[in-house]
Design a protein that fits this description.
This protein is 31% helix and 24% strand. It is an alpha/beta fold. About 2% of the residues have low confidence.
Amino acid sequence: MRILVSFKVTPDFEALRDADWAAAADETAAGVETRYVRRVLNCFDESALEMALRLSAARAEQGVATALGALSVGGRETEPYLKTLLALGYERAARVEPEAALDFAPTVVASLIASYVQRVDHSDLLLLGCRSGPGDSGTIPFLVAETLGWPCLTQVIEIEPLPRERVRVACMVDDGLLRATVRLPCVLAVGNAVVSQLRVPTLTDRLARRDKPFAVLSDADLGVDSTAELSRRSCVLTGLELIDRARHGVVIDGATPREKARTLFDSQLKRVIEKL
């Protein structure tokens, strides 16, 4: 079994100012200003990376070898995470540096991932996070699966190895938990899994694998023209607005709980009751 996990390194959106959510007037530069905030792993991708390690360990206990690989579409900000994954035991690591910004272009990102699987990695189990933060529509796993012609399950929370190149998957559906046996190859989109944090490599592991290389690929290496793909998009980012999630409330004054309850009744509840 060859497992590939595609992950995304995103800005820490919790650290952004409200003003940074305004898109630039110039369409070519439209986007969110994130240069000053740290980079973090997308939470769903982090779960997928850890689940792949546990799946590999479970297969090793059964005496079956598993080859782990990691792929990220992004710039140099992804390299520390690629080195960490190599230290944790991933055998293959690569990043694709696109010619254009792809924050709001899921179809192009999906094309790059699918092309990497077909041309370079030849894996038979692909794990991705179900979403990758603002700008992501949640469609990338499905677009990749459609391009590859593989089945796809989403909201996956658990993966167990089975004989004869199969896996048993638990995923959340509208009416509860679904367990399914899936034959490889397939695409699994990881959701709110219990395994939510990637383990930390030891210093010994880092030193032992510090010289292990990772590949850096371009769009051309994968046969994808990102610029041309972007020009054919039917949806173009024209603006961004911050959603106001602040809660509105009223402070009830009073020296005692009794006074506060009376004030609450007189100012809020009384007229509601009278309308009944």
